[in-house]
Every structure is written in structure tokens, then in C-alpha cells.
Amino acid sequence: MTKRERLRERLRQRRERKKALKAAMRAEREARSGAEGKPMSPDPTAGSPREIERQRQRAINALERDVEELGRLSPTQEGTAEIERLRHEVDELRREFFANISAWQRLQLARHPQRPYTDDFIRLLFENFSEIHGDRNFADDPAIITGMAWFHGKPVMVVGSQKGRDTKQRLARNFGQAKPEGYRKALRATQLAAKFRRPVIVFVDTQGAYPGVDAEERGQAEAIAFNLRELSRLPVPIIVTITGEGGSGGALAIAVGDRVFMLENSVYSVISPEGCASIMWRDASKAEVAAEALKITARDLLELKLIDEIIPEPEGGAHVDPELTAKLIEPFLDRSLNELAQLSPAELIAQRYEKFRRMGQFFV
């Protein structure tokens, strides 16, 4: 078989794959739209999107491999133009795929081990970072990073969750699950920011507060509640970005802000889907169903007016290109700082209070 014949055969196979993939995506959208308003089945295997999404991902990957091989096989200018057109079509399919993935799939992206964490954003967005350690009461909690830095020539205070990359780091940082001393350290840093009139920039990525006995003995619930009260009346701007998992009160304890943003593939929920499934159905394997029911995605929360804006991510997720993710976050932070700088401390506190009082008011 000649190169030209192989090219024609590849083009034919590519067209068939693309046609089948579009048909599958159209059928799934119709199935989802038809299921709106109906009670959700507790059986995650009935109509579960996981296998469908895996098949779609494999099909898109196969198309990309075909295009790459076609590029090697095609010697003519006409063939090169066709390859560029095919690449554009595959890129469109991939964008459509990531725009319509399920809540469960977004949760997996939010939990990706290579997703950028607070220390990455500090390196990419800020200058002259000086870390603050300890809560002046018990210990330093490495699950939360705090410190002073400069952003676009302005002094700010940075607070954020930190999970750790490898097993050693994750154990040292307790998988990003803060203990009472972590929340008290965050509060100490924000109060220091208020003293010197510095805005506070917060990055949230945690499964939740640490539920161990030692944390409870040192007043975990009290530390979270105290943070909620004090952050709600802090007289400086607070800008919050959910970068990965926003888990329950452990996330909310540092997420009371004047602006609350979410990365496109991050999640924010009162409980993890696995925990919800264990309570509702006594079966953690039904977590996919719980993820859809909990409305944990950025799009869901924006519709419910629980967040202010969604920050787009690089195609494929923030872990694909952390530098680009930081560049996408940067204008949101800069714009918010400029807007909030026009308000007096009294106006900031009043607007923040009204913002959180309006949440959940669906029947008035």
C-alpha cells in the first residue's frame, strides 16, 4: 500500500471515528436533558457517565494519534492543509468533551496529584514572599501556608491550603487537612494584615478539616467557628479562589471573602460525594450519584449564586499547565483588588455581611 493509499484509509477511519464520537456525545446530551426534573436513581451503574466518558476520551486520543501519524505520512501541501483542519476539529472535540464532563469527572480533576497548590501560585504570582509560622498558642500547622508578599507592586497577605506532592510531603502536611492551630495561624495572619491595611488573598484546596481526636481535643469546631466570625468582620479586602477541593467547614474557615472565585474544574461542597453516599445509601460506591446531586461544580455554584465568577483552566485541567493557570487567575485578582480598594472598611464589612446573608435564600 502506497503512502497516498494509507493516507486515504486513515482519513476514512478518522471520519468514521469522528462521526461515531459526535453521535455518542449527542446521545449523552439528549439523555441528560431528558433526565432533568426526574428523581435520580440511587444506582450509579444505571446510566453512569464514567464508562461513557472513558470511551469518549479513548476515542479522542485515538483521533489525535491518527492525526499525528497522518502528519508523518502526508508529503504534499494539500495533505498538510487537511492535517491542520483535522487538528482543529480534534481540538474542538476535546474542548467540547471537557466542557460537558460530569461532576464526578470534575472531582477527579480537582483531586489530580499534579494540580497546582498554594506554593505554586505563590511562586508564579507573587514576589518577596515571607512565610509566617505558628499560631502563638500550640504549634505550626504545615497544612496551611501564610505569609506576606507583593502582588503587582502592592503588599498583600497570602493564605492557602497545601496538600503536598509525594507521600512524604503529604504526610508532613497532613494531606492539606488543617488542625485547630492551622486555622488559628490563618486568623493570626489575617489580623496582622488588617493591622497594616493589607488585602488578603486566599487559595483553598482541602478535603476538609482534620477529624482526628487530637484536633477535636484542641477545639477544632471552635477554631473554625471563630474564624467565620472574625473573617466576616475583617476591615480589609479578602479575595478567595477555590483551586481544587473546597471541603466543608475546613474550606469555609478560610473562605469568607468579598470575592469568591472557583477554577473551572474545582469543587466546593458541604461533604465529599463518598461521605454523602455512605450516609444516604450506606454505600460509598454510589459517590458518582452523590456528586451529581450535591451540585459541587463551579457551574452549579455560580447558578446558585454561591460564588462570584468561574476562572477558566487550560484545556485538560490546571495540572496540564500550572503557569498558564496562574496567568488566568492573575487578572481576576488584580481587578478585584482595584475594585475593593475603592471601598471603606465599613463598606467592605457591610457588603461581605450582605453577601453571605443572601446565600441560600431561595424561597423569599
Considering the chains and any ligands shown, give keywords for the structure.
364 residues, alpha/beta, 2-enoyl-CoA Hydratase, Chain A, domain 1, 2 domains, eight-stranded mixed β-sheet, 15 helices, 54% helix
3D structure, described in words:
- The chain has 364 residues and is of the alpha/beta class.
- Helix content is 54%, strand content 14%.
- It is built from 15 helices and eight strands.
- Strands 1, 2, 3, 4, 5, 6, 7 and 8 form an eight-stranded mixed β-sheet that branches.
- The relative contact order is 0.11.
- Residues 35-49 have low confidence and may be disordered.
Task: Describe the secondary structure blueprint for this structure.
Elements lengths: L2 H33 L13 H25 L3 H23 L3 H8 L7 H8 L1 E6 L11 E8 L2 E8 L5 H6 L7 H16 L4 E7 L6 H5 L2 H13 L5 E10 H5 L6 E5 L3 E3 L3 H8 L6 H8 L3 H6 L5 E3 L10 H19 L4 H14 L6
Parallel strand pairs: 3-4, 4-5, 5-6, 5-7, 6-8
Antiparallel strand pairs: 1-2, 2-3
Calculate the terminal CA-CA distance, rounded to whole Å. 72 Å
Mean pLDDT: 81
Helix-strand string:
HHHHHEEEHHEHHEHEEHHHEHH
Count of domains:
2
> Which class of the largest domain in CATH terms?
Alpha Beta
Radius of gyration (CA) equals 23 Å
Largest sheet: 8 strands, mixed
Looking at the structure, what is the overall shape? globular
Number of strand segments: 8
Oligomer: single chain
What fraction, in percent, of the residue positions are helical?
40-55%
CATH architecture of the largest domain: Alpha-Beta Complex
Low-confidence stretches: 35-49
- Name of the CATH superfamily of the largest domain: 2-enoyl-CoA Hydratase, Chain A, domain 1
CATH topology of the largest domain: 2-enoyl-CoA Hydratase, Chain A, domain 1
Strand content: 5-15%
Structural class: alpha/beta
How many helical stretches? 15
